[in-house]
Design goal:
alpha+beta; 3-stranded antiparallel β-sheet; 3 helices; disordered C terminus
Length: 108
């Protein structure tokens, strides 16, 4: 059962002409991993010392790529790139005035 990863551009919200494919995967795990990589790559580029989780999340929801999964002849996949990004921002950006945490893969 294939799983197609499609990507919308948050900057062009609701504009399907900006949508592109990011691959077809044999397993749901592969498709989810690809979606997470897309989000992680954006957050890695945009993360900077001193940025808050809220600021980073706002950057993502305004300018980042929003991957989602379309399952073919399989149950729908429950993956939200926005929820994943929110959790990652909380991990990447500390809630204190100390130095920022190192960039690590998000685990949610």
């Amino acid at each position: 059962m294939p799983y197609n990863v499609l990507v919308d551009d948050n900057y062009h919200f609701m504009d399907e002409t900006e949508r592109f494919s990011s691959g077809t995967f044999a397993t749901v795990e592969g498709a989810v991993a690809r979606c997470r990589t897309i989000v992680d790559e954006f957050l890695e580029r945009e993360h900077s010392p001193g940025i808050s989780a809220s600021e980073l999340y706002d950057q993502y929801t305004t300018f980042g790529d929003d991957p989602f999964i379309i399952s073919v002849n399989a149950p729908p996949v429950n993956f939200s790139a926005w929820d994943y990004a929110r959790a990652c921002c909380e991990i990447l950006c500390p809630r204190c005035d100390g130095p920022t945490s190192p960039l690590v893969p998000c685990e949610t």
